[in-house]
TrEMBL record, chain A:
The active site is at residue 243. Keywords: NAD, Oxidoreductase. Belongs to the aldehyde dehydrogenase family. InterPro entries: Ald_DH/histidinol_DH, Ald_DH_C, Ald_DH_CS_CYS, Ald_DH_CS_GLU, Ald_DH_N, Aldehyde_DH_dom. Residues 26-466 form the Aldehyde dehydrogenase domain. It is an enzyme of class 1 (oxidoreductase). GO terms for molecular function: aldehyde dehydrogenase (NAD+) activity. This is aldehyde dehydrogenase (NAD(+)). PROSITE patterns: ALDEHYDE_DEHYDR_CYS, ALDEHYDE_DEHYDR_GLU. Its EC number is 1.2.1.3. It comes from the Eukaryota.
Automatic annotation (TrEMBL), chain B:
The keyword Oxidoreductase applies. Keywords: NAD, Oxidoreductase. GO terms for molecular function: aldehyde dehydrogenase (NAD+) activity. This is aldehyde dehydrogenase (NAD(+)). Residues 48-511 form the Aldehyde dehydrogenase domain. Transmembrane segments: none annotated. It comes from Malurus cyaneus samueli. It holds the Pfam family Aldedh. It is an enzyme of class 1 (oxidoreductase). The keyword Oxidoreductase applies. Its EC number is 1.2.1.3. Signal peptide: none annotated. Belongs to the aldehyde dehydrogenase family. The active site is at residue 288.
Amino acid sequence: SKSCATPKIPQMQNILESFKDRLLKIYHSSQFIYLVAVKAARKAFELGSTWRTMDASERGRLLNKLADLVERDRLILATMETIDGGKLFSTAYLMDLGACIKTLRYCAGWADKIQGRTVPMDGNFFTFTRHEPIGVCGQIIPWNFPLVMFIWKIAPALCCGNTVVVKPAEQTPLSALYMGSLIKEAGFPPGVVNIVPGFGPTAGAAISHHMDIDKIAFTGSTEVGKLIKEAAGKTNLKRVTLELGGKSPNIIFADADLDAAVEFAHIGLFYHQGQCCIAGSRIFVEEPIYDEFVRRSIERAKKNTLGDPLKPGVQQGPQIDKEQYNKILDLIESGKKEGAKLECGGGPWGDKGYFIQPTVFSNVTDDMRIAKEEIFGPVQQIMKFKTVDEVIKRANNTTYGLAAAVFTKDIDKALTFAAALQAGTVWVNCYSALSAQCPFGGFKMSGNGREMGEYGLHEYTEVKTVTIKIPQKNS
Amino acid sequence: MLRAVVRGSRLCPALLRAPFSAAAASPIPAPNPRPDIAYNKIFINNEWHDAVSKKTFPTINPSTGEVICQVAEGDKADVDKAVKAAKAAFQLGSPWRRMDASHRGKLLNRLADLIERDRAYLAALETLDNGKPYAISYLVDLDMVVKCLRYFAGWSDKFHGKTIPMDGDFFCYTRHEPVGVCGQIIPWNFPLLMQAWKLGPALATGNVVVMKVAEQTPLSALYVASLIKEAGFPPGVVNIIPGYGPTAGAAISSHMDIDKVAFTGSTEVGHLIQKAAAESNLKRVTLELGGKSPNIIMSDADMDWAVDQAHFALFFNQGQCCCAGSRTYVQEDIYNEFVERSVEKAKARVVGNPFDFKTEQGPQVDEDQFKKILGYISTGQREGAKLLCGGSAAADRGYFIQPTVFGDVQDNMTIAREEIFGPVMQILKFKTIEEVIERANDSKYGLAAAVFTKDLDKANFVSQSLRTGTVWINCYNVFGAQAPFGGYKASGKGRELGEYGLEAYMEVKNVTIKIPQKNS
């Protein structure tokens, strides 16, 4: 059952308790509810349906209208994200909601710009391609950015004309369910978006095995990503896109702007309590500046105030649930045992909820668990390196490949790393810079496919070639 | 009443059906035929200016021939001021240059919102100044304006450059930069829509604009200028000058500090613009000029629909469309019946006060056009075409002309070769498909064309063979912000609308960086 940081507001607590009970009933029967949801989505996708015959520009207009409504209810949604997900309120309001609105508007703009081609093939034929929607898309959303991840999934799917069945994370269903009401208010036809909360192993499996779902998109752990892809292969070969874990390297050269590098490295790891797939969780620092970098990083980590994420003046909230909390503490212990130097933090904080002290390890070596496994918590690893070739090898020595960064003023170094790093996003002199226009996704086991940008549309489009015989072709 | 009229396809079937079904729940608001004129000066740096010369000119109501009001008359000195403001707004580091591309899109969407808010007022102003029926201004022109702006708003952060795998140890990429200061000269036949067609792509791609609006119809565009300011565009990004072609227009096309000129108007003036651009600073040029578009009706066409569409193709907007289907080629088997039905339809067309919802055809835009069209009509008669209906003025006040149909028109007649730009339909006979393709292509123009047939092979063959920028099959005058529009030959160069419409407003910069070692 859902468990997270206890909200301090008593009335909210009661509401949530009764809501949790109702949710649990849904969770336990979700795999059956999915049968109904997929049927609704399939019907909404039939040839001749309102959704299929709608002007593409009108799909865009609906997405823009949805963005207007999110803007209108920004405060409600940000509060939900905070209470349900333990997110800092100011971050939820400014960053998460800001990203949601911009992403909806970005995808709205694409709706009537998804263009096929006419193709000069050999022979007396007129050939063209249609870029059709794939069909019914199952979408499984994680708990770390509930609303942003919800929008990242539905916006491109809808702008390309698909219908969706969405499973929000069982830890954080509230904002997705509220979006259901806005989707209806915006005027999307019934059946186009269906939202069914449920548990991963049951509901997630129901979706990935469903014979009438044409495509599945999943964001979550690499472990579950593998199960999803396997299920798709075993059943109807549904198209699969995955956004999975990471152990992203952040490489700091001696010629970097040290203040900026320390700050970006800090935020790059500690943002949202370390619960980001892109967390810069292996910081490689060039030998000459290593000691100074560690010193400044410790100082920076100690500045953070922990507490109720609804309150202003708090920079770090709780971890999402007990399971995560225990996993992180276990990895911290392994760090201590395997010989990393604990510079600050290293254990729980407070007597209630799932708070963990901001933790910094130095003298980390590549074979330690904390250097190899995704921690997903406020635990920063700092390692030392000497040469460019060495750090490229070490940075790439992982089955992950989601993101990476390099801090240097040197043009040759910057461009060398842009090419050499095996990661879906490489940042130069910054970290976590994301925007709706940019494709995002993983190399290797950090995922399959890309989300956002024009590239993200490819995953929600099925290309049909139409070839018509004509009496005589002329160029 | 209007609903019945529209459903009976007597107005503008294709264009009206789609927006009307959306508007079916809310009827068109009654117009105010005497709207207040709030803006009649020159718009520079988000401020209103008199002409440097202090001169003004009158804008006329074509329904009555009376002056609506005086408007500031921009000339070279005002163009110079506007260009200065535009250049300043385009400086490296300016708010406009530094703005997120997505925010440019947001501003365009906001402008669309404001136009939607003031839709009824703008439609009334458009009808007052141009003479087109108010129902059409409201349902068609304003609908397309909003859609065009929203379409280009969506492109603002999506016209990507490329990274390129060139030979050697280099990292190579392109930037799609704005061209710079764009002079835009717009016509009087669709004042608001032509303004949107020009502003949409230019602003989405980050350019700055100096726009000259037509002297016949300046008012609606000037009102939009106030909305541009309200929407939050930085000062100097859009500057609008009412004035005449030979003065303000010429100043734009020969200006040494304007990087690109876009002109919609007559082919005759198009030549002058291109010459001036070449003789001054080689500014980039795009032109949307005249047409004499062939509308080919095969004998297997759906007769009712073809007659209906051919009528609409010619008579829409008082015949004042660059793409008017002004050579209707009818296959000989169905010629007589087609002519008879077309004449019947033309006779039934309601000419009158454009503010009246019953009216389908308003006045021509001004006295010059009025005289010119009547001149073509008498030339048509003189050269032996058969006048089947209409042929004269329709009222003794204003510039109304009767819907006119000529039959038995031959290709070499003046009315078959020259653009009339009025409610005068030419019907010609043909035998075979190869013959009609040759005759259709035998024109210096190449803007649009259409073919009506049920046969798949004929449709594909004809559409492939016609040398025109648009070919409509079993329809006419179908436009969408998503679809490129423009001319072959003397009908123009370049395309507007669609993704293609962005190209003319971008300058491609190649950046090539030496790197230690290239890896794929």
